[in-house]
Amino acid sequence: MEPLFNPPLHRQRHQFVVDFVKRNKPPKVLDLGCSECSLMKRLKFHREVHLLVGLDIDGTKVKKKMRALAPVSTDYLQPSYDQLCVELYEGSVTERDARLRGFDLVTSIELIEHLTLADVERFSEVVFGYMTPAAVIVSTPNCEYNPLLPGLRGFRHSDHKFEWSRAEFKSWALKACSEFGYEVEFTGVGQPASGYQESVGFCSQIGVFRRLERGDDSNALGGDDAEDVFSYKLLYSINYPSLCDNNILRRVLGSEVLYWAEKLKSRWMEKKSGEVNASCAPIETEEEGEEKHTACREEMRNVVSQCESGASEDQEEEDEGVRWTRFQRRQDSCTSLRCVSVPLDVLWSCCPRVSTLSGSLGNLRRLLMDDPDVELSQDGDAVLVNCHEQDLEEEEAQDELEDSGYEPASRHHSAAAEQEEDWEESV
Ligand code: SAM
Q1: How far apart are CA 40 and CA 36, in angstroms?
Q2: Cβ neighbours, 10 Å, residue 76
Q3: Nearest partner of 202 among 137, 145, 136, judged by Cα
Q4: Which terminal residue of the chain has fewer beta carbons within 10 Å of its beta carbon, N or C?
Q5: Can you list the positions of beta strands (E) in 25-66?
Q6: Residue 397: CA atoms inside 13 Å, Cβ hemisphere, count?
Q7: What is the pLDDT of residue 261?
Q8: Strands 28-32 and 135-141, how do they pair?
């Protein structure tokens, strides 16, 4: 059968919530009767939502599709500063649980009609009186619309315990408002054909409740022991990778620094060995503007010319630019490796993502000092990139490069994929 509404009614209900979220930007959102998490899947894309929680009495139904709420590979490969934690619980809206208090928005989409009238009263106490969210969206069928639904006899679903008229819904909603200190606006989705609006109303009626700010919390049913109530079972919990997490920031920055240090080193070595033509082709970047690009090219030319004017392979003296140096690994006092030293200030000014991620040169140094994959010079002012005798076979050089812990630029992404595994394990 053709859907009666376009878009289908369930989509219109979810769109109503999404539009509310876009306008009001609630950081903490709870979906009651979340079922197979389809509304949550849409809400997870809203950066203003930092905590997204679902509750349903039917854990099996929730588990069916809950993995679709997990981060995808790009969330790991290119984490942003946004933060998102997703949690799913099995439990009844008629029971209290302290973890679900204090949300900015609670949604109850086509849920209350599945409760007995006695449980609807408990729902009011738990949601408005105990959870006390700033806003609540409740949708439920409007039975006045039913005569317009072709072939419908009885309720719209066999599990429905009631279907209310607009007056019945209004009476319940206004009672909850006066008991628990809320105000409500009535609206809905699923418009009837023109001419019917006044007489039947929307197919799904919606109440948007907002908590009145009284300051005294006099209507809340929390009580002193509120923190102790944990009646729901946690089914799923995941933190999305975010650059606000220092460990993730350090890994992303470290891998970016290694990528750029290698790039600058190769550039310098090519230049040195005269393999690059004098015009010095631009260094490719993904995000930088033309201005930075030019500055970077200039900087590299300076670096290269400084190095050309006297750096020899054993030179250890101070030099502002990229240069040869020798480096003794802490764990290996016998071997001294031939390295290229790439100054942090060159990296910072040449590589937009490095400067954006670190914020300042001082931060960059501090974050890299704690990164076991990045070798810094003794004074901490340069990244040391392991190097090889130029006449070595390429394969041998590659082996050594791998021994040094360095990830070649072309394998930048596989390094991130490894991170993905690690992060998956840590959550
Ligand atoms: N909200 C979902 C949506 O918009 O896609 C659909 C809701 S479905 C019609 C009703 C859901 O309420 C079911 O998943 C059911 O398991 C759940 N439910 C019924 N009684 C409940 C209760 N006491 N506490 C929590 N969830 C309940």
Answers
A1: 9
A2: 20
A3: 145
A4: N
A5: 28-32, 51-56
A6: 13
A7: 92
A8: unpaired
Q: Is the CB of 288 under 6 A from ligand 1?
A: no
What is the per-residue DSSP string for 368-390? HHT-TT--B-TTSSEEEEE---T
For the chain, domains (ranges, CATH) are: 9-239 (3.40.50.150), 246-404 (no CATH)
Phi/psi of residue 323, nearest 5 degrees: -160, 165
By DSSP bridging, strand 28-32 and strand 51-56 are parallel
Give the residues of the chain that fall short of pLDDT 70: 1-2, 215-227, 275-337, 388-427
For residue 120 and ligand 1, the question of a CB distance below 6 A is answered with no
pLDDT at 267: 84
Residue with tokens 């959550």: 427
Whole-structure pTM value: 0.76
Q: Which of 189, 181, 191 is nearest to 206 (CA)?
A: 189
Whose C-alpha lies nearest to ligand 1, atom 16? 58
For the residues of 106-125, what is the DSSP string, one character each? EEEES-GGGS-HHHHHHHHI
Grouping H, G, I as helix, E, B as strand and the rest as coil, residue 367 is helix
Alpha helices in 98-165 (DSSP H): 117-124
Q: How far is the CA of 186 from the centre of ligand 1 (A)?
A: 21
State whether residue 306 is helix, strand or coil. helix
**157 C-alpha to center of ligand 1: Å?**
12
**Strand 323-328 versus strand 233-239 pairing type:** unpaired
